[in-house]
Write a structure and sequence with these properties.
Helix content is 36%, strand content 26%. It has 386 residues and is of the alpha/beta class.
Length: 386
Amino acid sequence: MPILNRASEMQAEIAGWRRRLHEAPEIGFEVHETARFVAENLRLFGCDEIVTGVGQTGVVGLIHGSLGTGPTIGLRADMDALPIAEDSGAAHASKVAGRMHACGHDGHTAMLLGAAKYLAETRNFAGTVAVIFQPAEEIGGGAKAMLADGLMDRFGIRQIYGMHNMPGIPTGHIAVAPGPMMAATAKFTIGIKGKGGHAARPHTTIDPIITGTQIINALQTIVSRETDPIASVVVTVTRVIAGTAFNIIPETIEIWGTARALDMADAARVERRVGDICAGIGAANGAEVSVDYVQAHPVTFNPADEAAFVAQVARQVVGEGALDVAVKPVLAGEDFSHMLTARPGAFVFIGNGDTAGLHHPAYDFDDEAIPAGVSFWVRLVETRLA
């Protein structure tokens, strides 16, 4: 089954939904109008059950097949935008100052709505499909909130699948691989308290800036000297807050950073070593050092059998020439990983073409990807629930 004729016919309508969402971006869990728009459309499509307020503002629609009983599988799209001022120049650019859909969640939501409309019309499957619209992917917490609200058990979901657009992959092509697709992500805040004083009398102080620079340099050895060069680990310091004047050694400084890994053992080791390094250097300098380390998301990991299944589906939709079954993982994080730890499933990329990158002010979702995305979802359901 190649691209569905019906998906191509619906492209303009789905693109209209997408552009409407793009003009009115919402952040985090505060996606009330987006969720209302999703729920209203699911009702119009004739979904058998629509549940709102899952994980605060998430929406779940259930569609029962006409071919008999069977399991329930979940398809997930994210709804939230980013706190970025748009500079795309698009006619449908954000109308909300300082906010934009810079990651394509408007496209993800619209494509899943298109698939829901088709599946509710045809119902050519056995069992049930749950279309899941999640808030707060960008800030993290949305997937965990929906899971805590009973997403899997409440709706009897057996497998779960997700999709994200990817600039740099040709529009409408699909990419997947077994194993890690996206990284485990962590953020850390290091607080250093020394003894402030006059910059001309450093011997009377405990300089937290010196302690901080030693910590920053030592953190880089976690990757360069403690990690197998074949592995993928990142430790990056992104902010240092220190000082008030050119002639004052401050009392305190604060360091922010992030860590990424494609293996959870590496992620755990990085967390341990950040703590060890901070404690050791703090003690050596006589400074008090505290570490707040938050492991935000696990690795987004595709089991081999599920990766092979979605590759088979994609091959039937876009063809061998538009399918990459060995795509390199991305060191960005994705909170769909929490859903994949709760149920088996897979995560795929759909190409967005030669566009600005994700989280860039000039980014825009390519509506030409819509027929492939909708067709992929439909074929996945009809294959898994045959």
